[in-house]
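## retry 2 of 3
previous attempt timed out at serialization; input unchanged, resubmitting
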Amino acid sequence: MPYTVLALKWRPNNFDEIIGQNHVATTLKNAIKNNRLANAYIFAGPRGVGKTSTARILAKALNCVNGPTTEPCQKCPSCLEISQGRSLDVIEIDGASNRGIDEIRVLRENVKFAPAQGKYKMYIIDEVHMLTNEAFNALLKTLEEPPEFVKFIFATTQPNKVIPTILSRCQRFDFKRIPTLEITSQLERIAAAEKINIDKDVLFAIAKGSDGSLRDAESVLDQLASFSRGKISLPDVISMLGLVEQDALFEITDKIINKDALGTLTMLNQIIDEGKDTIVFLNNLIEHFRNLMIAKIAGADLKLIDLPKELCERLLNQSQAFTLEEIFSAFNILSNTQEMSKRLESLRIPLEINLARLAYNKEESAHPVKVNPAPGELAPAPKEEVTRHSHKTEPEQRKEENDPPVKIISLEEIKAVWLAIIDKLAKVKMSVSTYLSEGQPVKIHGSTLTISFAKNHSLHRESLEKKENRELIEKIIAETLKVSLRVNFILSHEVSSKDNKDDPFIKSALEAFGGRIINEE
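## retry succeeded, writing output
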């Protein structure tokens, strides 16, 4: 007897066996019970989540000898033929290879004929978004007034490419990615039934790598069962899929917490030497910091994290080492790595640079020492305020500082309209507005406005330093205050919570949101 792959062998046969799409199954069952079936349906969602399987189940439910029924018998000729893909009344069409107007004209002619043995003639068109506009238009009249014995089911991974006139004639069901834990449970059932020797943590790794596609997960399990002799181990899955283990994500994050830049780079090099895909690693690390953010915000209530309980507990513990701002900053730096890689056409270099930035110990670098200090001379140099290097020459700088501004304006006047400046920026460039909102105007000297950021917001300062962003800020300030000012960005440790309380900008924000300052250290 020929071997049947797991994805086909374990395909659901009734509505109750559909994994992860309860909202779709429940609605369709109610429609059958109440005799409220539509002429046409669109099943939209990612690959491998059950769209075509659900279409076949609906076809069986309508054409079963006991149908229409929510529980097809699976034994009558109609049910068996549909399950085996050879029913004359259920026509499955590949939209990618039958996308032209000629094919749709043939379909329009054939819909006139009654079903061979069942109650309904079902047309299941997969990847329907691949049809041409002419083919779509040819379908319109048939969709609107089909024979009473005809039903259409369109499956697509890209519903945005289906023209609105088609969408308006169909009932739409959105299929979602299947949660990792649900895929793991299904793989566990399959492994037990198929007598595949495999641990649950290995099944979880397969589910995690499938990105919500049960079919992909089943295919990987099938491949591993053929590849491995005896028990399937976690290294087998890691090797096949190029995944990065959860332990590695926790370990490299611990090195970032401990400011171990060398250890971080060494571990990255090891991951690359093992043949891991750097894109997969970066995406996994970004997701790890996303999970840390959820853990930090939600505390012990970790329903938003699709991971086993023990991993959620580790995330909760690790999140305690970060402030929420530090997690946001790390997330921005890692996301920026992807943009940098497009310019350099290499991911390894920007990944190394930004991981080193995350793990760099700024406190140590702020205390330079002599290479060969004499006894008693080993002392830290005084800490200096970090400012940006001016792009002006010294004579130009002195001239700017000595020249009086066209209009004299006070720091208080600037703070009074600071929110308005932020709002105006948001309408032009949201990213600049978001970064600038984390800063505070702290000093006005001549025609230069100094804006201060907390020490962990170096990314904000660097982004705003870009010529186009700085010029945009200066333009909005000029339009708001009717005075030309240059902006200077610094990282400062000297902004106290007392100053925050008295700051009009902070006051207005607290009043607007009904907030209060809770940390005055």
